[in-house]
Amino acid sequence: MPRIIVDVMPKPEILDPQGKAIARELPQIGLDGFTAVRQGKRFELSVQGEVTEARLAEARKAGEELLSNPVIEDVVAVTVVED
Predict the structure, then answer these.
(1) What CA–CA distance (Å, rounded) separates 12 from 44?
(2) Structure-derived torsion over alpha carbons of residues 63, 67, 72, 78, reported in degrees to the nearest 10
(3) Residue 63 CB: number of other CB atoms within 10 A?
């Protein structure tokens, strides 16, 4: 059964305290190569049948109107995963 993945991230101008906390801790576990972290959300929508352009558009609309807070977040990707 295919899935549509909707990735949502905070808008660039929005502070991301969770991302900052993760970035501070990375060197503590020996990971020094990262300069910043932004934390977002991932939604997996299961689809019966074929994933069409119309179904992808519906997933994007769900992301923009229900899965994200459009004041502070952007839908940054809508992709298909075939199992």
Answers:
(1) 23
(2) -30
(3) 24
Q: What are 56-63's contacts with CB under 8 Å, separation 24+?
A: 56/4, 56/80, 59/4, 59/6, 60/6, 62/6, 63/6, 63/8
Mean pLDDT of 26-48: 96
Domains of the chain, CATH where assigned: 3-81 (3.30.1280.10)
Per-residue exposure over 14-37, b if at least 16 CB sit within 10 Å of its own CB, e if not: eebeebeeebeeeeeeeeeeeeee
Residue type, position 32, single letter: D
Task: Please tell me the predicted confidence (pLDDT) of residue 82.
Answer: 86
